[in-house]
UniProtKB/TrEMBL annotation:
Name of the protein described by the UniProt record: Large ribosomal subunit protein bL33
Gene field: rpmG
Family in the record: Belongs to the bacterial ribosomal protein bL33 family.
Molecular function GO labels: structural constituent of ribosome
UniProt keyword list: Ribonucleoprotein, Ribosomal protein
């Protein structure tokens, strides 16, 4: 059985650049600072569901 995937979206431009494995143990959305290739800089990325 395949793992469920969740996308990480850039908070500035909204593009979904990264995917991570879904974890039901997380109570709130994951926020990490990642590089956005569309913005050209490091921005906050939020977990989308």
């Amino acid at each position: 059985m395949a793992q469920k995937k969740v996308a990480l979206a850039c908070s500035v431009c909204g593009s979904r650049n990264y995917t991570i494995a879904y974890s039901p143990n997380r109570t709130h959305r994951l926020e990490v600072k990642k590089f956005c290739k569309h913005c050209g800089k490091y921005t906050m990325h939020q977990e989308t569901r």
